[in-house]
Amino acid sequence: MASRQATEEDPDEAFVVETVRALGGATQGGFGVGDDAALVGAGEVVTTDTMVEGVHWDHRLAPADVGWKLVAVNVSDLAAMGARPRWATLAATLPAPLDRAWWQAFVTGLDAALRHWRLPLVGGDTTRAMHARVLTLTVVGRAASPVMRSTARVGDDVWVTGQLGRSAEALLRTTPGADAMAWLRRPEPPVEFGASLAESGLVTAMIDLSDGLARDLARLCRASAVGARIDPQLLPGGRPLAESVAFGEDYELCFTADPASAVAICSGAARHGLTVTRVGAITGDALPLLVGHACWPAPRFDHFSGDLH
Amino acid sequence: MASRQATEEDPDEAFVVETVRALGGATQGGFGVGDDAALVGAGEVVTTDTMVEGVHWDHRLAPADVGWKLVAVNVSDLAAMGARPRWATLAATLPAPLDRAWWQAFVTGLDAALRHWRLPLVGGDTTRAMHARVLTLTVVGRAASPVMRSTARVGDDVWVTGQLGRSAEALLRTTPGADAMAWLRRPEPPVEFGASLAESGLVTAMIDLSDGLARDLARLCRASAVGARIDPQLLPGGRPLAESVAFGEDYELCFTADPASAVAICSGAARHGLTVTRVGAITGDALPLLVGHACWPAPRFDHFSGDLH
User: Do A31 and B128 make contact, defined as CB atoms within 8 angstroms?
Assistant: First the structure.
């Protein structure tokens, strides 16, 4: 059985989300829960993600990496819906007096990511911070065939893209590999592949892996009212279980599909120069289970806050 | 001649804006400068505004007022483009442990404003603050006939809606009037009127008054490469000049139009239950001038930061 720790949410965050959802009338779509991004009208998808200095990054990220990552975490949410990014706005809250060298470096990394995903920055706002920098990017995208997390079916395969646990390795080990450090600093969520998967009609549900497979798969299963059995031997990357499933910042995709679609999915991934791995199956269990383990490893990390659970 | 203080921008903010604009390729539209909101494709308009605790509000605003005002300042930007709001996303950065009573009250005011402007909140993100609360709302709207600030013509009249200086009165006086306090806490920018003005084709340029007429009219004139002559006797509200033009947080509209349109503008305003006042004219001068004064009063206030210039 999955451990409680692997599925529970922060109670304060849950309170925030519930108060907003309770508004009813004026509010619709997923405020912080539900899908990775909100569907607004026909195929129009929006996501917003904030990075707070000291919470979402520390000295291990250069200012340019922060700029890259702010774009990456947002387009990852769009990828999970099968959406391509169209445009973005930036709200930057910065302490006075301005550290111009920091800002200039941040903008360089931001620009690199905006170009990588061909995403125009159309507007923004700058305000004065009291202490830490707070950076919010809002990205609007378009999905020809939006994919939700609530539509997985019993019997589907569970897949993940790329490898798991690179950011965990980068942050937890004394001497992490260069690949792991590079992914921590400049993750490249598979946006084009996510959109093409959605358009292919091969996937039944999808979520991005920002909080680790244990938590994110639990969300997908809860939304779909299904369970799952995951084989730890199949997890790509070959890292210890806690790094692979209980850490986060993977910025890979986790998706479900009919087993008959396996060959088409693999060849689609190959066309995008990506690897995909079948890691288990959707079941009628009450929760996602980790085969051969009584419970999932407890979450090890809540971004850079230092809160090791 | 207008005083230098009345037109200059914060050099740090200018640096932030210029570095982003200098990116070229990936970036387009007005990042913090140019128009109040960015035009994205045909008639699609977006604005984003952040409120920082201790900078944009203090104890004089109840949490519910902060919620209302966060919506109001954003829809005011859309109104200045002649756009109607369609949907919004909220990014809330809140100190841990969460003050649930504060958040619940904030949401009540936010909801009241969302309902007032019939604006669905479709998504959001909550993150942990290090210190002060930081709230960013991004609002997307649609403008059938977007209006810029760069298209005023010599000979146009200069108009303002409502009255000027209510927030100034509320914040500067020992015993402000109830109307002034109410507007400080729950401003009601004329969104429907802004959209109908734009659709009527009667206005040539428009801007919202968030930083005071002195600064905002200077921006409109600079963007349009024109000057203006404003008659201080005509400013609506009957408050001292410094309160009327050099403070801000008016959340009224300032627009320009051919003198032949005056009757149509007044009757349009009457249909919306609003007052409009002709306060001067656009000229070929190098700057906006205040008739009978050597210079504009120096800006008195930079939101709630305590920075009196």
Answer: no
